[in-house]
Amino acid sequence: MSKKILTMKLLSEKYGVCRLDKKDLIPAWAQKGEFFSITRTLDELSIVCVENNIPSDIKCEKDWRVLKIEGPLDFALIGILASISTILAQKGISIFAISTYDTDYILVKESEIDNATEALVNENYEII
């Protein structure tokens, strides 16, 4: 039996990736749930959050699932995202990646999550 490369946790809820105006305040609805990510750039305010929290008038892409790489990961580790994205790209699965200080999160569309987890398990990743 092969040794597992990394363990990934599939979060239970569905998420949306939202685009707000660069000048908008960070809304309270975005900050609820097990996981959310907020990024402000010169061009936009981008929010990833539980899709059930997103108001209907917000521009967003819904139906994302989140795979969390169980960490913390050392900054010296090389190629983690490259390895995962290559495995999924070879299966024609698009991702949206978010990195934090401790770990990485891979977002995959709900329609592809079973294919994605199967592909990763076949490459010795553990999905919990």
TrEMBL record:
<protein>
    <submittedName>
        <fullName>Uncharacterized protein</fullName>
    </submittedName>
</protein>
<dbReference type="InterPro" id="IPR016540">
    <property type="entry name" value="UCP008459"/>
</dbReference>
<feature type="domain" description="CASTOR ACT">
    <location>
        <begin position="60"/>
        <end position="120"/>
    </location>
</feature>
<dbReference type="Pfam" id="PF21631">
    <property type="entry name" value="A9CJY8-like_N"/>
</dbReference>
<feature type="domain" description="A9CJY8-like N-terminal">
    <location>
        <begin position="13"/>
        <end position="57"/>
    </location>
</feature>
<dbReference type="InterPro" id="IPR045865">
    <property type="entry name" value="ACT-like_dom_sf"/>
</dbReference>
<dbReference type="InterPro" id="IPR027795">
    <property type="entry name" value="CASTOR_ACT_dom"/>
</dbReference>
<dbReference type="Pfam" id="PF13840">
    <property type="entry name" value="ACT_7"/>
</dbReference>
<dbReference type="InterPro" id="IPR049447">
    <property type="entry name" value="A9CJY8-like_N"/>
</dbReference>
<dbReference type="InterPro" id="IPR051719">
    <property type="entry name" value="CASTOR_mTORC1"/>
</dbReference>
